[in-house]
Amino acid sequence: MMKKSRFSVEQIVAALKQAEMGMPVADLCRKLGVSEPTYYRWKKQYGSLEPDQARGLKQLQEENARLKKLVADLSLDKAILQDVAAKKWGCPR
């Protein structure tokens, strides 16, 4: 699982816009307290987004994470029930 960024997607997109408008990348990175590789990773991931698209992407990422957790929980429940059924009735999985 990825570490949660201290910057929102909207903040990242706004920072990328500052660089597009002429702020030197080194100055921007120093101001934000991030490394240049982080800036370029952001640029690759979010560079083509507008702020409203960034909000939509963030919502989709949150929904995706929620659904992945739900699937993992349901898979665990299924495995537990299969184990119980196998022990109780001797049914193979």
- Strand fraction equals under 5%
Radius of gyration: 21 Å
Major beta sheet, specifics? none
Number of strands: 0
**Domain count:** 1
Query: Total number of helical segments?
Result: 4
The secondary-structure element order is: HHHH
Structural class estimated from helices and strands: mainly alpha
Distance between the termini: 30 Å
Give a topology summary.
Layout lengths: L8 H12 L4 H8 L3 H11 L4 H39 L4
Helix pairs in contact: 1-3, 1-4
Q: Can you describe this structure?
A:
The structure is a single chain. This protein has 93 residues and is an all-alpha fold. The chain has one domain. The chain is built from 4 helices and no strands. The chain starts with 8 loop residues before the first helix and ends with a helix. This is Transposase. GO terms for molecular function: DNA binding; transposase activity. InterPro entries: Homeodomain-like_sf, Transposase_8, Transposase_8_domain. It holds the Pfam family HTH_Tnp_1.
